[in-house]
User: Which sequence fits this backbone?
């Protein structure tokens, strides 16, 4: 088990992490990683905490400066950097945006990966401790404008993303299985398997699964 097989962050009770690579027949396969994943938590948390502090120090920012730019409290950032708390996806997006990075860009810098070929077995997987949603980073490189992410959103869960996280990207969501409700700037869209939505101007976005089954979708985005 290596670092790429899971970015299961947190001080929350651990759960089996679910990856969703494609089988040879083109359907999703659920892979439940064992509880050995728990041993990765300390290393992963340390890498991310170190990277956030490094990005902040490189800009000469105080905790208060990052708090103001990210709309995340100074106390929360301090706990994350001291590895006393695990950030949710929403908090990570806000911090990454303050650094002018995408969430994937921040995770990539924490990991230190640099490879044009993204093998399925090496794609970083992260689980949001608040919602249990699983995010697989299919492709991302600092020198390439396109980024691809695969997500499993559990039944009855929702993820809210601030407009700031879309300030310098254009994004499209393609639903693979299940039903995804997207609220974008006050406009609501319900996407079923095969449906694809291109996002408009930056605005607050809520991704929700109101059904009793998991929803699988792919996010493709380009930086500009």
Assistant:
């Amino acid at each position: 088990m290596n670092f790429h097989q899971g970015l299961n962050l947190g001080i929350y009770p651990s759960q089996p992490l679910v990856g969703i690579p494609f089988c040879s027949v083109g359907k999703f396969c659920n892979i439940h990683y064992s509880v050995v994943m728990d041993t990765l938590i300390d290393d992963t948390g340390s890498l991310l905490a170190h990277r956030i502090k490094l990005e902040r120090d490189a800009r000469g920012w105080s905790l208060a400066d990052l708090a103001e730019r990210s709309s995340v409290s100074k106390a929360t950032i301090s706990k994350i950097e001291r590895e006393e708390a695990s950030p949710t996806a929403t908090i990570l997006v806000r911090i990454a945006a303050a650094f002018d990075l995408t969430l994937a860009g921040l995770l990539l810098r924490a990991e230190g990966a640099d490879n044009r070929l993204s093998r399925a077995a090496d794609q970083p997987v992260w689980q949001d401790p608040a919602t249990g949603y699983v995010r697989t980073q299919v492709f991302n490189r600092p020198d390439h404008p396109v980024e691809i992410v695969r997500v499993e959103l559990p039944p009855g869960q929702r993820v809210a993303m601030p407009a700031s996280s879309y300030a310098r990207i254009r994004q499209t969501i393609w639903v693979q299985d299940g039903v995804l409700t997207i609220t974008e700037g006050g406009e609501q869209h319900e996407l079923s398997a095969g449906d694809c939505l291109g996002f408009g101007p930056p605005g607050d976005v809520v991704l929700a699964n109101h059904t009793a089954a998991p929803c699988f979708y792919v996010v493709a985005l380009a930086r500009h």
Q: What stands out?
A: The mean pLDDT is 79.
